[in-house]
Amino acid sequence: MGAEEEGLDLSLRHSGARVARTRNPFIHHLCRAIDSGLALRAPRNDKERPMTPDPLVSTEWLAAHINDANLKVLDASFKLPGVLPLPKDDYLAAHLPGAVFFDVDAVSDHSNPLPHMYPSAEQFGRDVGNLGIGNADTVVIYDAGGWVAAPRAWWMFLAFGHGNVRILNGGLKKWRAEGRPVESGEVKPKPATFKASYDAKRVRSMQQLVANVESNKEQVIDARAADRFEGRAPEPRAGIRSGHIPGARNVPYNLLFDAATGTMKPLDDLRAAFTGAGVKLDAPIVTSCGSGVSAGVLTLALYRLGITDTALYDGSWSEWGQAGGPPVATGPA
Fold it and tell me: How far is it, in rounded angstroms, from Cα 320 to Cα 333?
């Protein structure tokens, strides 16, 4: 798992008997968790948030488990409008063995004119079931082109009640760089039954964000590039104003991963990116971006820091930035 353990001694992979003998309750808990296959992270200090399972899995781990009966792999790649080839075409050309394509635009509310808004629990369950995923399955999600969309799909699964979901650290890029096998063509899985339940606490609406501009109860962090956040660059979607939500902070999502390896940066670097942007990690947080996709990268990074109770603004700038919409701020945060 490499850097995911954040400094933990790998010698702690004890047998069950040795775990049982330890008199240190922290080590006992730690070894039990590591033996279960999940990398754990230390909290910022012992008075802060408890350790949580790391949502990332390594390419080594996935290679060892990819043929497990209850493990399902999803390619959730996404691109901005007009960027070719289409993500589905990339998937058809090369994908992880057995991976099924998760189309963020298809698994969305088709009655809403905004892009890829969250569907109902009934629709999510139906769509995910058609991908061959049941409630007992472990889901591993990856991106073909970077970190943009896998975290969005990961957060959707959490929001719809499926906690057994992970993200492949480094995605297809790292997998292929290591010489691991890929397949072409479409995988057509046997449909399964997936029952979803929606957790509204994980998602925010524009109405809630408008009220928050006045109350300032939650910090808003925008994942877009600085020139878009500051209003110096046009938005990729027609008819959308430039700028940001008043009071928002800016942490461009690409600052959180290593472009060379495609892996997420160490925890200290993630923490520095947020605190350097003026984010208070002990206060409530909502993430935002252009259309609710790359905001998931911020959500993932915060989750890895033990901040698991954030929310994602689903409509993001594609909703807020519409002509005649709420007030817009420009310039640096």
Answer: 17
